[in-house]
Amino acid sequence: MSPIDARAAITRAHHEEWARVVASLAKRFSDLDIAEEAAAEAFATAVERWPADGVPPNPGAWLTTTANHKAIDRIRREHKRVDKHREALMLTDDDPPEPLGAIDDDRLRLIFTCCHPALAMEARVALTLRMVGGLTVPEIARGFLVQESTMGQRITRAKGKIAAAGIPYRVPYTRDLPARISGVLAVLFLVFNEGYLATGSDTDPVRADLTAEAIRLTRLIRTLLPDDGEVAGLLAVMLLTEARRPARVSADGELVPLGEQDRGAWDEALIAEGHRLVRDRLDSGAPPGRYQLLAAINAVHTDALDARDTDWSQVVALYDQLVRLDPSPIVALNRGIAVAELEGPDAALEVIDPLGNALDGYHAFHATRAELLRRLERREEARTAYDRAIALAGNTAETAYLSRRRDELS
Questions:
Q1: Global model pTM greater than 0.90
Q2: Largest Cα–Cα distance of the chain, in whole Å?
Q3: Which of 14, 22, 353, 400 could bond to 254 as cystine, CB 3.0-4.6 Å?
Q4: What confidence tens digit (pLDDT) does each residue in 293-324 have?
Q5: Is the dihedral of CA 221, 144, 266, 333 positive or negative?
Q6: Does domain 320-410 have CATH number 3.40.1390.10?
Q7: Which ranges constitute the DSSP H helices of 30-147?
Q8: Torsion of CA 30, 218, 129, 337, to 10 degrees
C-alpha cells in the first residue's frame, strides 16, 4: 500500500472511529485522560504501521484493541493506579452488565459525561468537541475565539473536575433527562456547526462525519424525549441544514452562499423530514423555543424553489421572536442579514454596525458588512471588511469565496 493510500485510510478512520475508540476506553477505564491519550497513541501507531503492514480489515477494531493495550501499558507504568490496573484487567466480555441508563450507547454516555452540569458550559462544549468530535485544540480554540493555551487549560481542567467529582460515565435515567438535555443540545449543535463549516484550515471545509454524528446522536436523544419540542427543533435544524450540504461547496472548493446554491441538489428526503418536524411542533400549539424558531427559519428558506421566492418578511418576524428568547449578538447579526433582503443594505447596516464591539473577532460579522458595503458601492470600506473577514476565517471554502469577492472589487 502506498503511503498516500495509508494516510487517506487513517484520516477516514479518525473521522469514523475516534469517538467510538474514546468512548469504549472511557467506559472501560473511567478516565478521560487515559481514553484520549491511548486513542491518540493508537492512531499514531497506525501512522507508523499501516503504510508497511496494510490497513487492517476492521480499522475500528484494530484501533480499539491497540488503544486498550496502550491504556493498560500506561496504567502499569503508573504505580499510583495499581487498583485501576487490576480493575481494567479483570474486565472481560463475561462480566455482568452494569446498570444501564435510558439508552445503552457508549458515545451517548460519553456526551452526557462531557456535558455534566458540574462543568461550565464552555467546558462542556470544548470537551465534547475534543473527546467526541476528535477536533484538535487549535480547531476548538478558533471556534471559541480564544488562545490555544487557554483552550487546552479549559479542557484539562474539565477532565480533572470529572475525575475529582467522580462524575459517572452513563446516560442519565429517564427521570433526570429533562434537566440535563439543554446543555447536551447546545453541545450537539456546535458539533454539527463545526462539521457543516469546519474551522480548521488544514481540514475539509465540510466534515460530513461530524454532521452525521450530531444528527445520529440527536435522533437518539429524540427517542428518549419524543415530546420535547426543543429536541425536535434541533433535529429539524440539522436536517434542513444538512439537506443543503451537497450544494454548499463548488467544484473549485469555494463556498456557495444560500442564495446562489443549486436547489435541485438539495436532499429532498431530509427537507421533507425537517418540514414535518416543524409542522408537528406548530400543530402542538406550544410556545416555540430557540431551536424550534431556528427550524422554522430554515423551513422558510428550504420551502422556496428559488431564492427570489423566499418570504423574507416571515424570516424577519421569526428572528424578532428569536431575539426575544436569545438576544445574543450573533442572532442579531443573522436578523440583520434578513433585514438587508427585506429593507435594503442601509437598514441592515444600522442593525449590524452596533454589534462591532461584541463581534470584532467573528469573521461572519466582517463578511456580512463587506457584502452590504459592496452593495452600496462603498468599495474601499468593503475591501477592508473583506480583508478582516479573510484574516479571521479558518474554513478553506469560505476563505476562497471571500478572497474572490474582494479581488473582484479591483
A1: no
A2: 72
A3: 400
A4: 999 999 999 999 999 999 999 999 999 999 99
A5: positive
A6: no
A7: 32-53, 59-77, 82-90, 106-114, 121-131, 137-144
A8: -160
